[in-house]
Amino acid sequence: MKKPIMIAMAALSTALLLVPAPALAQQGAVAPWHAHAQTLVAAFTGRGNAAQAYTMALIQVAVYDATVAAQGGDPEHKRLYEPFIADIPAAAGADLNAAVASAAFRVGYERVNDNPTARANYRAAYEASMAAIPNGRAKTEGIAVGEAAAKAVLAARAGDNFYNNASYANPAADPGVWQAVPAATPYATAGANDEAMAFTMPLTAPSPGARRIKPPPRLTSGRYWRDFEETKAFGALTSTIRTPAMTDVVQFWTESGFTLWSRNVRDIVTARGLDGLAAARALAAFSVATGDAMLACFEAKYAHLSWRPWQAIRRGGQDGHPHTSSDPAWTPAVRANHPEYPAGHGCYAGAATRALKLLFGDFPVELTSTGAQVAGWPVVTRAHYDSLDDIVEDNTNARVWGGLHWRTTMERSSRWTAKIAQDALCGRWGLQCEKGRLDLDDE
Fold first, then answer.
1. Is 148 inside a domain boundary?
2. 24: containing domain
3. What is the per-residue burial (b if ≥16 Cβ within 10 Å, else e) of 313-334?
4. Which of 156, 182, 203 is the last residue of a domain?
5. What is the CATH number of the domain that holds 213?
6. By CB count within 10 A, which of 11, 23, 148, 421 is most buried?
7. Which stretches of 153-271 are assigned E, i.e. beta strand?
């Protein structure tokens, strides 16, 4: 096990010892409402991983701010943390479960403005939560705290450009330039996924492109050629050198990054037995880090517009490299519908694992998955990792062996978003981290 690179865990552990018994008695609402929010956001019609990660961040920030307020309203409770967006006044005795549920419900219901069935189910979950809390002043005050926290988050993000509806138009089909396809094919899903996220304002940076990754390797470089040959050989749908064990790795990581990481971080936090405040803080910090990383990832995707391996390999004779050759029938094992560089799964894994390190240090973990995009291949439900770093390596291999990405893209993406997560959490979020040079470039 590697030594943790941050000192945040020591501070967090000390803080947890100070949490009084009344807070421990109300720890039940945070994880269930994280799960309700995941279900709602995953069903956000027409929205992909970047939009989902960012939306979850807004919900979890409201939950966290409401939790800080509800606990701070107890005169015997010492405030351990500052809110992220708004300092909400709360009467003593405000019910924490009511505050958490109200904050999560209001932000999720207002921000997810599509899929009536998912929204109705979300409302039903809220009504059931409220029915389980005894009526009285504590419940009323808790609802007021949650609604106030949600109102503050919604107001703060009202001009975030999330609902930008600009339509995507393909540029000229020059070598190296990604082209969206109008209808699904065996090698690509249709459209330009989450292109509007290129305009969305992050929570912890001054502009969408403030943290943009540097350009990908030149098409005529030796690195590009090595990546080209590896993905061409191992990532083809009909590859004869990708082993069954490799295909298991590919299949595991075909689940949506949003649902995989949301479920697993909730399981990690739940297993640690954190009280309501610490759980809300950990889930919000994780969501802010991954949300901003995914916004940066998709902003950079549509800035660089790098073609996918299926486009590059089918047009290998047009890239100007003397050693690449075309295979007009080449098809990847897994499909996608957005530019190749940087990599969505690599971005998510890099930010997620760095956020977890910042919160808890390094640790062994078992992740679960429902990924099933490799047709005819069994679902691989669990994978054990001795270190968080091993997750990033496995994730990198999966997307190369699945024919979705180049290895350089995966490696750069995870390193880059790890630094975005660090920048977000050790900066705007306020974790006490070791001081040192932070360079958002990957090398």
1. yes
2. 20-156
3. bbbbeebebeebeeeeebbbbb
4. 156
5. 1.10.606.10
6. 421
7. none
> Which of 109, 138, 156 represents a domain boundary (last residue)?
156
Does residue 165 lie in a domain region?
no
Q: Cα separation of 324 and 316, whole Å?
A: 5
Domain identity same for 90 and 223: no
Tally of structural domains, the chain: 2
249 and 386 inside one domain: yes
DSSP conformation class of 322: T
- Dihedral (C-alpha) 159, 161, 165, 170: value to the nearest 10 degrees? 160
CA distance 282 to 356: 9
Cα 358 to chain centroid distance, Å, stands at 16
* In a domain? residue 434: no
Record the tokens describing residue 209, joined without a space. Answer: 């492109």
Give pLDDT tens digits for 111-137: 999 999 999 999 999 999 999 999 999
Question: Are the CB atoms for 67 and 100 separated by under 8 Å?
Answer: yes
Indicate which CATH number applies to the domain containing 141.
Answer: 1.20.144
pLDDT interval class at 78 (50, 70, 90): low
Give a yes or no: residue 182 inside a domain.
Answer: no
Res. 440 pLDDT band, cuts 50 70 90: low
Mean pLDDT of 264-286: 95
Is 331 found in the same domain as 234?
Answer: yes
For residue 307, how many C-alpha atoms fall within 13 Å in the half-sphere facing its CB?
Answer: 25
Sequence-distant (≥ 6) Cβ neighbours of residue 366 within 8 angstroms = 382, 383, 384, 385
Bridge partners of 306, per DSSP, are 177
Place of tokens 């005795």: 93
Residue 279 · residue 27 · CB < 8 Å: yes
User: Could you tell me which residue, 17 or 321, shows the higher pLDDT?
Assistant: 321
Q: Which of 436, 391, 441, 399 is nearest to 420 (CA)?
A: 441
Distance (Å, rounded) from C-alpha 94 to C-alpha 220?
Answer: 63
DSSP state of 216: P
